[in-house]
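User: Can you model how iron/sulfur cluster sits in this protein?
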Amino acid sequence: MSSCVFGPVPSRRLGRSLGIDLVPFKTCTYDCIYCQLGRTTRKTAEKKEWIPVEKVLRDIKEKLETMPDYITFSGSGEPTLYSKIGELILGIKEMTSVPVAVLTNGSMLSDIGVQESLMEADLVIPSLDAGDEDIFKYVNRPHESITFKSMIEGLKNFRSKYSGECWLEIFLLGGVTGITSEVEKIAAITRDIMPDWIQLNTVSRPPAEDFAYPVLQSKMMEFAKIFGENCEVISEGNDIFKETHYRVTLDNVLGMLERRPCTIKDISTGLGLHENEVVKYVQKLLTNGKLKCVKRKEHVYYEGIH
Ligand code: SF4
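Assistant: Here's the modeled complex, given as structure tokens:
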């Protein structure tokens, strides 16, 4: 079984983030129209130990020498569908002081067991992309067991109990939620949830559906004001990772690109390789039929073929 750990990858939010992939590609409770991983192939709300927890801990231990800023549960789908996520967080805490972050779509937070399993995480970043049921269904295309109401109640309930940092990611889409009246609806809900921080995001990598459009940066800045002082627009392309302390292999590059499409620059900053070196790795993977190339505006992204 290949490693479920990838990176460190450059994260716009978390610096050099060691990614942990807890579910098979692409297992999620949602099938978001903007998803950079493409369409959901296994839409489920059933929790499972998809990979033995001992193996995940072993894989993480092997990569701790890369000195990441965060250990982050993200990757090929929704990490709270991993039934032993609580045990895993406790295992990591025994092994290292590197903080643990969980990027979740928030849909499973209505499950008390999932809430409790995340209590020891240092940072939880749930998503909220809609202000009502209709838009929720259109944007997130949730599993049939998940309603907008249950998702919002779960978020509020979790926030009221959790003592770690809780940020909220709000993904806005041009012509859908990237309009003032929809942003105001979402902002009203965030005032009840009371996250420590809000991050506004929009399409910057190839989305699952062609009809998922980005919102102009100038509009994003205007919308951020509606959420108040604790809100920022996430910007692309910070040079976070300048040098590396471990040898990069072809598998490292492929592992990164199987989880998300990246530009040459993204790979370079993520793996600490000079861009000229990255080009050689990418060329080899393209020749071997392991990658495809996707153009979006002026950027070229490389994506692992599953
Ligand atoms: S964006 Fe996240 S929540 Fe939405 S389908 Fe993709 S992996 Fe699932």
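A couple of observations from the model: The pocket of iron/sulfur cluster is lined by residues 28, 30-32, 35, 37, 40, 77-78, 105 (CB under 6 Å). The radius of gyration is 18 Å.
User: Helpful, thanks.
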